[in-house]
């Protein structure tokens, strides 16, 4: 029995020793005593991409400027990213005119340069290049008051408000109501020859009280008794032409301002500014040119980028001679908010405006037109 236990103990010692040898070998292979990795296969180095020199702007070049050779330089460009319109020879650019504003280090394309700005017309306008797909541009009248005191500039976003005047019309005549009443009388023809009993109907305007509408309770209290004729009802006639009813509403939201004022046609060639010698005074323009530069005309038109349906709305508004105003939106604000139409009734209800009572006393002189007070620096006000 003891002998069997001894054999089992010897077998366990041998197994533990073999495991220790294996673990020591692994440590030697991966630890600080591991052999150098010189036998490993080296990684293949990547193949450098093929490049080609293209022409870029060495400095900012404004639109319409003559491009000299010293404003150009050549840089390496990957062939895989090469565009057909890129230029590889500076001689093809030097002496040309910038079709657009070109920024520093921007690759110059064949579409960026022209020999003469008159050539621009054959490829379309600059304005059309700024209109997104699916949108259109519309020109609308513009004033200092409607245009936020000329604060609106190219690239701003605006809302358009319109004010409408509504009147009542006769549905069939399409004329202002109330209608005038005409009567029919009969008289002999004006032929100069006796026509016997024949009579010709003649339309004549109605009586003084026949323009308007019958007064309330006309059959009980409003009668005029004329000697020899039957009683006639009174008609209530208006004292003036029908007053239109005003309503204002926003009709266009978030329109982009393409341009304020009239577009200036491209000039044939830009004349480079001469370089002045050191300490040489700048030439003074004639007085006439100074006055022309100081008196820059104020814009009277604005061009908006809108959806086609909004363009139809603006066309209708202008055709109907409806007054519009522009509201300048905050920079970056593209939100859409529904607005309610504003009428006299909505103002009274919303702001709880009290309707003045009819009193037995009043002001003298009577207030018929509200005018701002005159200030010393204001021009003379015409009453």
List the helices and strands and how they pair.
Elements: H1 2-30, E1 51-57, E2 72-78, E3 97-98, E4 113-114, H2 126-129, E5 136-141, E6 157-166, E7 182-187, E8 200-205, E9 213-214, E10 223-224, E11 232-233, E12 235-236, E13 245-260, H3 287-294, E14 301-306, H4 308-319, E15 323-328, H5 344-351
Antiparallel strand pairs: 1-2, 3-4, 5-14, 6-13, 6-15, 7-8, 9-12, 10-11, 13-14
Architecture overview:
- The structure is a single chain.
- With 383 residues, the protein is of the alpha+beta class.
- Among the domains are: 51-122, Alpha-Beta Complex (Type Iii Antifreeze Protein Isoform Hplc 12), CATH 3.90.1210.10; 125-167 and 244-264 and 297-355, no CATH class; 182-236, no CATH class.
- The chain contains 5 helices and 15 strands.
- Strands 5-14-13-6-15 form a 5-stranded antiparallel sheet, covered by helices on one side.
- Strand 10 (223-224) and strand 11 (232-233) form a beta hairpin.
- It is elongated, with a radius of gyration of 45 Å.
- It starts with a helix and ends in a 32-residue tail after the last helix.
- Residues 30-34, 218-223 and 268-272 have low confidence and may be disordered.
Briefly characterize the structure.
The chain is an alpha+beta fold and 383 residues long.
What structural keywords apply?
5-stranded antiparallel β-sheet, alpha+beta, Type Iii Antifreeze Protein Isoform Hplc 12, two-stranded antiparallel sheet, 5 helices, elongated, about 375 residues, single chain
């Amino acid at each position: 029995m003891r002998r069997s236990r001894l054999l089992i103990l010897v077998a366990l010692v041998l197994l533990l020793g073999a495991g220790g040898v294996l673990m020591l070998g692994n440590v030697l292979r991966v630890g600080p005593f591991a052999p150098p990795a010189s036998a490993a296969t080296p990684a293949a180095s990547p193949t450098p991409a093929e490049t080609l020199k293209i022409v870029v702007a060495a400095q900012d070049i404004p639109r319409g400027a003559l491009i000299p050779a010293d404003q150009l330089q050549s840089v390496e460009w990957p062939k895989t990213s090469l565009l057909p319109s890129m230029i590889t020879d500076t001689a093809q650019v030097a002496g040309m005119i910038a079709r657009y504003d070109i920024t520093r280090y921007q690759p110059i394309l064949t579409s960026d340069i022209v020999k003469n700005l008159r050539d621009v017309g054959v490829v379309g306008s600059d304005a059309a290049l700024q209109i997104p797909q699916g949108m259109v541009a519309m020109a609308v009248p513009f004033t200092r008051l409607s245009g936020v005191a000329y604060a609106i500039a190219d690239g701003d976003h605006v809302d358009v408000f319109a004010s409408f005047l509504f009147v009542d019309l006769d549905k069939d005549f399409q004329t202002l109501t109330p209608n005038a009443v005409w009567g029919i009388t009969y008289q002999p023809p004006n032929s100069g020859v006796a026509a016997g009993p024949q009579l010709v109907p003649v339309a004549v305007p109605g009586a003084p009280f026949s323009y308007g509408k019958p007064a309330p309770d006309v059959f009980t209290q409003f009668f005029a008794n004329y000697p020899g004729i039957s009683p006639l009802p009174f008609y209530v006639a208006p004292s003036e032409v029908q007053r239109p009813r005003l309503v204002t509403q926003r009709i266009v939201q978030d329109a982009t301002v393409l341009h304020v004022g009239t577009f200036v046609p491209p000039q044939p060639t830009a004349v480079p500014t001469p370089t002045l010698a050191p300490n040489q005074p700048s030439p003074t323009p004639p007085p006439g040119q100074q006055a022309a530069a100081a008196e820059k005309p104020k814009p009277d038109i604005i061009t908006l980028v809108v959806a086609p349906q909004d363009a139809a709305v603006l066309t209708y508004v202008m055709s109907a001679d409806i007054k519009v105003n522009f509201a300048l939106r905050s920079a970056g604000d593209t939100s859409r908010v529904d607005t309610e139409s504003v009428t006299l009734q909505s103002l009274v209800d919303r702001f709880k405006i009290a309707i003045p009572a009819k009193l037995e006393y009043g002001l003298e002189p009577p207030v018929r037109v509200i005018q701002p007070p005159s200030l010393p620096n204001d021009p003379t006000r015409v009453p």
